[in-house]
Amino acid sequence: MRDDAAPSSAFMAGLGVAYLAAFIAMAPLLGMLVPLRAEAIDAAAKETLLSTALFWGAITAAVSNVAAGVLSDRTRSRLGRRRPWMAGGVAGVLAAYAVIATATTGAALTAGVVLFQIGFNALLAALLALFADRTPAAARGRLSAAMGVSYPLGNMVGAALVGGWLTQDGARYGALAAILVVGVLPFVFRMREDGARDGEAPVEATPGSVTAWFGPFAHRDFVLVWLGRSAMTTGFVVGNVYLLYFIAADTNFQARYGAPPEAGLALLTGVSFGVVLGVSLVLGLAGGRLRRRRGAAVTGAAVLAMSGGLLAMASDWPWVVAAFAVHGLGTGIYYAVETGLMVDALPPRDQRGGDLGLINLAAALPQAWAPLMALAALDLVQAGYRPVLWLSAAAFAMGAVLFGALKRN
């Protein structure tokens, strides 16, 4: 495909739906089902079980995302470069659901999360590589906006299913599995891979190829986007890891409404998404250049820092909801431009899967250290779960500073 050729509407729609389905498969699992499973295994040690499982899952995510990206760059088969990794990723996620749902020990829970991260990151690496392969700079704003809605929409849909409509574990896991299969597999089998013709020579390995893999870190904007995304992911993970427990222990939701904390989390994600949807689409459609995406990223990070502080100070449920509405505003602004910002920062070379794997380390590695940071804050400051929310706000503020250092043109 020529670099300046716009992708078809069918491709863009299929990629957007597949990306959304992947995040619906992920967001409620790590944000709700795994915490609930940890509590069911050992309520007294739930924070430690959860942090341990998420730590090893994140280490696995970091390795598997880079490996899947590099290997998909070099894959040549009748199925194409990216397709085998997407199909294998779906299979891995489905297997992980079965392990997590039946886990009765911390080790089994950790094994399930590790397996999930292998499958999810194989799928994610291939989807993002397709975005870079097939989308020229002029078309990135629109598709980045659509893809940017995926994480908050995945949170909302997953929370509605898991925390609202469905109460049995079997139905919860079954619904997420069905959404993943229906959302991803039709795209996997129907899309055309222009860059993956049968018989095409693989990418040649060069001397010092390990060094070459890390070549993008010689580019200033790549480093800044990497560090900024790392700070933002730290903020999201630290803020979300104990959010379910925060609702139960530090707000008056249960006393006020007599409902379980899962229902409160579902309500918060719905409120947040209602703000995210309009904001992310408008700003994503408007942002065509790195300069514009830079300004939106700074604004989104700053608003998220403000929302973290507001949430940390709230206890009465209406104020918690208001803080989450502000959180949705910041999330919408940031996620509308995140994917485009990442692709803009890639160096001009034909190793996009591997390069995106490197930049995705900024999303994977914080999932390892962020739960440990949250656990440390919980232990060091005996003030409920509020110190964790202040830590989240600080990480978002750091993201705003780093994005602000990007070049203006």
From TrEMBL:
Boundaries of each Major facilitator superfamily (MFS) profile domain copy?
Answer: 223-409
InterPro entries given in the database record = MFS, MFS_dom, MFS_trans_sf
Top-level division of the source organism's lineage: Bacteria
**Gene3D superfamilies, per the entry:** MFS general substrate transporter like domains (1.20.1250.20)
Q: What SUPFAM superfamilies does the annotation carry?
A: MFS general substrate transporter
Q: Spell out where the chain crosses the membrane.
A: 12-33, 53-72, 84-103, 109-131, 143-165, 171-189, 223-245, 265-288, 295-313, 319-337, 358-381, 387-406
Asked if Transmembrane is a keyword of the record, the answer is: yes
Query: Which Pfam families does UniProt cross-reference here?
Result: MFS_1
Q: Which residues form a coiled coil?
A: none
Q: Any idea which UniProt keywords this protein has?
A: Membrane, Transmembrane, Transmembrane helix
Q: Which PANTHER family match?
A: MAJOR FACILITATOR SUPERFAMILY (MFS) PROFILE DOMAIN-CONTAINING PROTEIN, PTHR23528
- Know the name of this protein? MFS transporter
Q: Which organism is it from?
A: Brevundimonas albigilva
